[in-house]
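Propose amino acids for all 274 sites.
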């Protein structure tokens, strides 16, 4: 088990005043089968009333409305997470985690990778554990990619990313989701925090024989251990967007600044992601 203190901050600066700003935040890690979260505090500037809810995937969602003119918008969330992957509890699955989405539908490149992975998974034998099969898929995805920031966007599909052979953690996760679902594994997309991975990190969880969601990180070709904090999960990236907003403003450009960090409270190791 790890005890981690997290502090996720984001600030938007606008080139001119904006009004009628409506936003939705999925930035709060919640207590789940693998982690317990306590002492959570969410702050938004300018201040406003926040409506809190839990979406259909179990992610915490905060919504707010800022009608008055403002030139910046920021939020921060702090708290403590106890992460214990080895003793993760069983949890429910959803049938929709077995099916393709717009971002994960396969084309020629993905079908070729699916066929390769299926041969390797089948070679493991009919009694191979879900985790063993998922690790085989993860390694196939890891070797098919080069990590290269700036080559994809949040709207890049798994097929497009694989066809060009490079991308970021979101793309690795989307490709692995597609392959898992086509070789008989139930899998979901995870957005969370990990040292050294930009604003946030993305990985995959598969549903094993025990009814436990097990995390795998195809960007690093390893299991997602106790240093991974889950923020949200869903079918793909679009179900886990950390922040979404619309506003009114004439010719307004925006600049974004992010700094998640968390501290291992057991040995005072400070981990920064920026």
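Proposal:
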């Amino acid at each position: 088990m790890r005890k981690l203190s997290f502090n996720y901050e984001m600030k938007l600066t606008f080139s001119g005043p904006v009004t009628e700003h409506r936003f939705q935040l999925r930035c709060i890690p919640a207590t789940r089968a693998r982690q317990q979260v306590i002492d959570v505090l969410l702050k938004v500037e300018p201040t406003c009333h926040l409506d809190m809810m839990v979406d259909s995937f179990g992610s915490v969602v905060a919504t707010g409305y800022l009608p008055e003119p403002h030139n910046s918008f920021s939020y921060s969330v702090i708290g403590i997470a106890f992460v214990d992957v080895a003793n993760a509890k069983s949890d429910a699955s959803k049938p929709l985690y077995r099916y393709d989405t717009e971002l994960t539908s396969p084309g020629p490149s993905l079908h070729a990778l699916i066929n390769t992975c299926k041969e390797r998974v089948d070679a493991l034998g009919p009694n191979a554990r879900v985790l063993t099969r998922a690790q085989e898929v993860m390694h196939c995805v890891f070797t098919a990619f080069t990590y290269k920031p700036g080559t994809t966007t949040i709207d890049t599909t798994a097929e497009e990313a694989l066809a060009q052979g490079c991308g970021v953690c979101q793309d690795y996760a989307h490709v692995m989701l597609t392959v898992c679902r086509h070789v008989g594994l139930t899998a979901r997309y995870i957005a969370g925090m990990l040292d050294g991975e930009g604003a946030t990190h993305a990985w995959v969880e598969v549903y094993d024989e025990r009814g436990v969601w097990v995390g795998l990180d195809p960007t690093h070709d390893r299991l997602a251990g106790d240093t991974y904090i889950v923020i949200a999960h869903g079918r793909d990236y679009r179900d886990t967007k950390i922040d979404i907003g619309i506003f009114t403003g004439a010719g307004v450009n925006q600049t974004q600044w992010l700094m998640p960090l968390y501290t291992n409270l057991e040995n005072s190791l400070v981990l920064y992601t920026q």
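Helices lie at 108-123, 130-144, 158-164, 169-182. The first helix runs from residue 108 to 123.
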